[in-house]
């Protein structure tokens, strides 16, 4: 029988986080199916779960293919109306599920929704990966209510209203299963990072909406699998962002946008070089060459997206300016200071 809601935790060598946060997930998610999907861990995290929590279903993926393919492989085996994709390094709170499910039930056009994401180590601050709902600018640079680039706001309840956004964070994403599979799930090529933005963009382009429900609150450690200062993360963010823009942008000036993005990426690479962050400089260069290698398949995917019978490109919740200019040149630091 199909479950209403399934909480799915993707795990890779995450015993420490499972020991720390899984008990709270269980106690705060009563009458909800909880599943640990393992990406071929080499620690004893799965033995820990099966021994300590024998009622939790375990799905074993045959290899570690990252966040995107790992979730795709696992979710194909789960019968539920709604998936809750939950990072293993997230602490949930009481009543974290029902406000979002009630919102999504009330409006069937909502394909994905996230809670308010606060920093586990600084509980009064928003957390980098999602904060209180994600947006992009016209060049596909992502930012959030509560976080623009590396400027992270204190939560003073300034973003407590339910709001339509552009993307919901993969750290804690509630997603309608039907909508997820209508767009064929995550793009396996991403491995990790930006895949949730790509997913939300594709769902929006067939008529769905993305929301944040701040009545639901969770606390995210962040960097549990790949630290934010890792050159690999820099590589994935720069490459995947270019792929996302190329696949999904509805602009007739796409290649101008890509060229402009490459110029800005070049400036970012030079900044890394000047700061002595040589590995990050190299990561940006590698990201661009990898993007070129993926370009034929990316353009093919772009054509396939446009062939969807419900394709109706959406520009809602896109900041129609350059967030790089607004932040670094004009000095705008917070979401509320932006003029949409």
Structure characterization notes:
The structure is a single chain. It contains 10 helices and 14 strands. Strands 1, 2, 3, 4, 5, 6, 11, 12 and 13 form a 9-stranded mixed β-sheet that branches. Strands 8-7-14 form a 3-stranded mixed β-sheet, with no helix packed on it. It starts with a strand and ends in an 11-residue tail after the last helix. The chain folds into 2 domains: 218 residues, Spore Coat Polysaccharide Biosynthesis Protein SpsA, Chain A (Alpha-Beta Complex), CATH 3.90.550.10; 107 residues, no CATH class. The chain is of the alpha/beta class and 340 residues long. The model has no long low-confidence stretch (mean pLDDT 95). It is globular and about 55 Å long.
Low-confidence runs (pLDDT<50, min 5 residues)? none
Briefly note the CATH topology name of the largest domain: Spore Coat Polysaccharide Biosynthesis Protein SpsA, Chain A
In angstroms, what is the radius of gyration? 19 Å
Number of helices: 10
Superfamily (CATH H level) name of the largest domain:
Spore Coat Polysaccharide Biosynthesis Protein SpsA, Chain A
Number of domains: 2
Q: What is the mean pLDDT?
A: 95
Task: Tell me the major beta sheet.
Answer: 9 strands, mixed
Succession of helices and strands: EHEHEHEEHEEEEEEEHHEHHHEH
CATH class of the largest domain: Alpha Beta
Strand tally: 14
Structural class: alpha/beta
Question: Proportion of β residues?
Answer: 15-25%
Helix coverage percent: 25-40%
Give the termini distance in whole angstroms: 45 Å
From the 3D coordinates, which CATH architecture of the largest domain would you assign?
A: Alpha-Beta Complex
Indicate the overall shape: globular
